[in-house]
Amino acid sequence: MSDRYYVTTPIYYVNDSPHIGHAYTTLACDALARFMRLDGREVRFLTGTDEHGQKVAQAARAHGLDPQSFTDQVSTRFRDLADAWKFTHDDFIRTTEDRHVRAVQALWAKLEASGDIYLGTYAGWYSVRDEAFWAENEIHDGLAPSGAPVEWVEEPSYFFRLSAWAERLLEHYRANPDFILPEARRNEVVRFVEGGLHDLSVSRTSFDWGIPVPGDPDHVIYVWLDALTNYLSAVGYPDTAARDYERFWPADIHMVGKDILRFHAVYWPAFLMAAGVAPPRRVFAHGWWTNEGQKISKSLGNVIEPHELVATYGLDQVRYFLLREVPFGQDGDFSHRAMVHRMNADLANDYGNLAQRALSMVHKNCAAAVPEPAAFDAADTALLDAAAALRDATRAHMEVQAFHKGLEAIWAVVGDANRYVDAQAPWVLKKSDPARMRTVLYTLAETVRRLAVVTQAFVPDASARLLDQLAVPAEARLLAHVGDPAARLRPGTPLPRPEGVFPRYVEDAA
Ligand code: MSP
């Protein structure tokens, strides 16, 4: 296993205000980044904003602003979202920054030098909403496959020789079977490429909000070639001798929504191979959320506003729901009922009560300090071992972005622990066998410690509070400490008064 990890979100178009889709993609990356840090890896987690192109230029005009002032204003909304959701990105890139412009122009120069770019004329369909060229056979009833309107475009344009790369892309997919996940999406991409690729228009001349083509400033570079390059700009490209580039490229994963997989799994690796740059190790396409069974759209007025979501249910609760409710990669439905069910059943009842019961009993019956255990019996050992095994189990699930399975494995141990409390009935042992009670309470507190270390990637605030309540030092909260005998709770350690960390959602009486 490598000791470093580079994870990226798509960079978001600034024409729109942030919605659940943006928050979801970044959340998935945040959980990965936090997990890999827990696992002792050096992480680079990149997010940012996509600020060029016709769509953003049109939005700026509609607001009566020049594109640069418009993007300066609206890109802060994406930073604010990242702050409100406490995302732990290490870098936030904007495509209007100098470091990015330099990288895009350098990549262009490479493609030109390798003979992969030529000048021609584009005549075909374009969708401004998707910022995508669509082939004739992809247009149905005047709409792109995404449902976006298209317009006919005819203009001088540079082309990238994508058609020449189909065979090498297929070879790359074959040699790297988990380059594209999930598998069903991979198969779609393979079929698309097997169908043959057209050369791709990579410059526009009908507007100027973009990065000029080196040596031909009548053209601006196609916004997707521009945007995709952000993953390289942020690690210092074209300075390939820079520490960041050497350490972090190729990226371990580009996380994207299913709607933008083609750009990331076909165009991007082709550009990179043509420029002599290694493709990323993985592109993962996640599914889309609906709201109470309905497609989310501005015109339906059912957009889920990320700030509101967190204000209503709480940040850890929303994180848990989004990562647990849906097998990652599939589409999911957001509903108030399902959200409340998850937060009350899994968090408040199962995990929250377990911790609260265990810690309150310790507080009351063991003089507010970690109790001294006697010999562990088979039930104690079974529970402690199950909790220790979570290190490897969650690691395996996170390697393939199976957040839901990681959480399922953790909650199986939460369930074991709750059954253990009921079976051991420490409140009975208090009178009949206090030494055994102390062993049971120790086992429980130690199990909660192990759980709380692992849950940090998913419900970070509550986990940190649990670890505080167990007086676990900040430097002993890594995955390596889960089953480490030296990291076990020390008998006699004073503990603060326990407090619940997962409030229940109570419906308004009205
Ligand atoms: N700017 C491009 C990405 C360039 S990356 C080099 C872009 N931007 S976007 O703002 O439209 O990004 C949207 C992201 O949010 C995509 O990953 C998309 O899949 C995701 N979602 C938008 N609506 C969504 C849902 N309803 N549900 C889940 N995610 C969805 O595309």
Written description of the protein model:
The protein folds into two domains: about 5-285, Rossmann fold (3-Layer(aba) Sandwich); about 335-485, Isoleucyl-tRNA Synthetase, Domain 1. The protein is of the alpha/beta class. α11 (about 305-315) crosses α12 and α15 packs antiparallel against α16. It is about 50% helix and about 15% strand. Strands 1, 2, 3, 4, 8, 13 and 14 form a seven-stranded parallel sheet that branches. A four-stranded antiparallel sheet has the order 6-5-7-9. The protein has a three-stranded antiparallel sheet with strand order 10-12-11. The chain is built from 19 helices and 17 strands. The chain starts with a strand and ends in a 41-residue tail after the last helix. It binds 5'-O-[(L-methionyl)-sulphamoyl]adenosine (MSP). 5'-O-[(L-methionyl)-sulphamoyl]adenosine binds next to β2, α1, α7 and β13.
Number of helical segments with 4 or more residues: 19
Record field, number of beta strands: 17
- Average pLDDT works out at 96
Number of domains: 2
Q: How large is the radius of gyration?
A: 26 Å
Assembly state here?
single chain
**β content, as a range?**
5-15%
* Percent range of helical residues: 40-55%
CATH architecture of the largest domain: 3-Layer(aba) Sandwich
CATH topology category name of the largest domain: Rossmann fold
The CATH class designation of the largest domain is: Alpha Beta
